[in-house]
Amino acid sequence: MKFYIVLAAVFLTAAAHAQTDLFPSPAIEQARTALARGDTAEAGRFLALVDETAVDINDLDFLRGTLAFETKNYREAIDRFGRILARDPSLNRVRLELARARFLAGDDGEAERQFRAAIAAGVPPPVARNISGFLGELRRRRHWDFDFGAGIAADSNVNVATSAQTVDIFGLPFQIDQSARKTSGMGLALNGSGNYQWDIVDDIRLKAGGTFYDAEYKTRDFVDRQLGLYIGPRFLLDNNAEISVLATSARRWVGGKNLTEAYGARIEGEKPLGTRFLFNGALSWQDQSYMRPQYDDYSGNIMSANGVLTYAQAGGFLRGVAGVVREQARIAPLRDTQYILGAGIYRHTLPWRFSGYLSTQLGLVCYDAPLAAFARTRHDTQIDTRLSLSNALATLGRFTPIISYIHSERLSNIPVYAYSRDRFELGFSWIF
Q1: Residue 51, Cβ neighbours under 10 Å: how many?
Q2: Which pLDDT band holds residue 244 (cuts at 50, 70, 90)?
Q3: Running DSSP on this structure, what letter comes out for residue 276?
């Protein structure tokens, strides 16, 4: 493809001018000359003679990475270019080389992230257009996705119990039963998602996949398992945009017993807005049924609309989230409308090769009618904050150890529904 040729020219220029030697080295220059004329064997012999302490390590790693790339040792190239960016994330030409190496190694997710980061840092218009070609190729050649995470979770409020000491019911004060107070616990958290896509005709695929979540605790009543499935056509549009129309189903078990079942549909899409912005949005409808008689009044339709706008930067991204959810329960006091706003920031250029993600989300929940027992209409405010850290030095292949802290705070004009929750997770992510 044409974009391979244009970017190759940029990469060869980068190889010749990646960094100026702090201490001139004849072996470095001879290796550079050998690479320029395509003699990888001679370049390798000269690089083996270089004293690492006498030259600029970035220049040496770049030449070693270029040699590995030319000999199709893409893993070695990824490691060399990654080391350079860890020392100096501003080297955008190196980032382009890393993106191309990951592309050819089949690391599609990381290749896309690095290409978008390179565009965000600024590239000439011809290079930007050809990077768009790479992104389009990534989108079309990928037929499956899978990721898995597991870890140990310490939770200060496993049962999501109220923080209130007393509650007024029908105007009279009652003490909260101690057995209903919040309970801390240590458990095992598992989560994953995956899908496969079959080609139907050009730019139309049949997409099928699912998600699951499992929180296991010693006390069986706190065990929470969730499963979601979907299937439907995915349409690949011009300018790297896409839209999918999916039939969905979901089921949740709490304490080992079926709690809810839901069936519905979702329309989701993605569209780049210029070179730095990416918009994702979805509309969904589900008919949810509670399978336990005591919760029957909560059954009903759930409709939602949400959008996510991501702004790419060289060192990560900024993200904004907005959405609205309508839960149409069987009785008015249980029907509500939720308004959601959130923001997040991701950085993969933190000191000592750390990457971090910080996000917060605000949810306003407004119910339709008063609850008879409390003689007031319930209004809640939910605030969730997450901080996750990982380190490139600790990554083993596709396994990435992650430490996360999540704080949830729910405020309510009916105190019995208010709670506070802190959760620590130590685990790993496994992405294909």
Answers
A1: 10
A2: very high
A3: T
Report the half-sphere exposure of 346 (CA within 13 A, side-chain side). 13
Q: Are strands 144-155 and 419-431 parallel, antiparallel or unpaired?
A: antiparallel
Give the CB-side neighbour count of residue 74, counting CA atoms within 13 A: 12
pLDDT band at 6 (very low <50, low <70, confident <90, very high): very low
Question: Which one-letter amino acid corresponds to residue 412?
Answer: S
Whole-structure pTM value: 0.80
Between CA 106 and CA 100 the distance in angstroms is 10
Non-local (6+) Cβ contacts of 259 within 8 A are 252, 253, 290, 291, 292, 295
**Low-confidence winner among 107-116, 381-390, 415-424 (lowest mean pLDDT):** 107-116
CA 414 to chain centre: 35
Residue 79: pLDDT over 80: yes
Both tokens assigned to 372? 């008879």
Domains and CATH numbers, the chain: 2-141 (1.25.40.10), 144-431 (2.40.160.40)
Q: Is the pLDDT of residue 164 over 70?
A: no
Mark residue 18 as left, alpha or beta (left: phi above 0; alpha: psi -120 to 50; beta: remaining).
alpha
- Partners of residue 264 on adjacent β-strands: 248, 286
CB contact at 8 A, 186 and 152: yes
Confidence of residue 17 (pLDDT cuts 50, 70, 90): very low
Question: Mean pLDDT throughout 146-169?
Answer: 72
Partners of 360 in beta bridges: 343, 385
Tokens read off for 260 = 């809810």
What is the rounded average pLDDT of the residues 235-242?
A: 90
Rounded CA gap, 63 and 183, in Å?
Answer: 57
What is the C-alpha separation between 153 and 217, in angstroms, rounded? 9
**Where are the strands (E) in 113-256, listed by range?**
144-155, 166-169, 172-175, 185-201, 204-217, 224-236, 242-254
User: CA gyration radius for the chain?
Assistant: 26
**Is residue 47 packed enough to be buried (19+ CB in 10 Å), middle (13-18) or exposed (0-12)?**
buried
| Cα angle 427, 251, 378; round to 5 | 90
DSSP conformational letter for 176 = P
Count CB-CB contacts under 10 A for residue 420.
15
Residue 191 to residues 5, 26, 188: CA-CA distances in angstroms? 41, 53, 10
Question: What integer is the mean pLDDT of 250-277?
Answer: 93
DSSP string, 103-145: HHHT-HHHHHHHHHHHHHH---HHHHHHHHHHHHHHHHH--EE
